[in-house]
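[step 3/7] fold_predict: job queued, chain A
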Amino acid sequence: MTPSSIRSSQPACLHLRSKQMYYQVEDETDRAHRREIERLFGAADTTAFWCERTQTGRGPDGACCNRDECCRVARACFVSVDSLA
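[step 4/7] structure written:
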């Protein structure tokens, strides 16, 4: 399974945070610019993630926080939206 397919099929841990969660100002010019950059250089994710529980770039289990790692249900510190019910 590729990282992009994990992102689309698995929900992230509820404790995963990034700046993009707090703002989302993007217009058509921004989207066109992003598409052009991806076309020229390939897609790259430079988003800085952190764990809400530890307030660092590592989770309570010591592993890195990012979209790929924090979508793994097998991770000991993973909290799903289903746990809220």
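[step 5/7] annotate
Helices lie at 3-9, 28-41.
Confidence is low (pLDDT under 50) at residues 1-8.
exit 0
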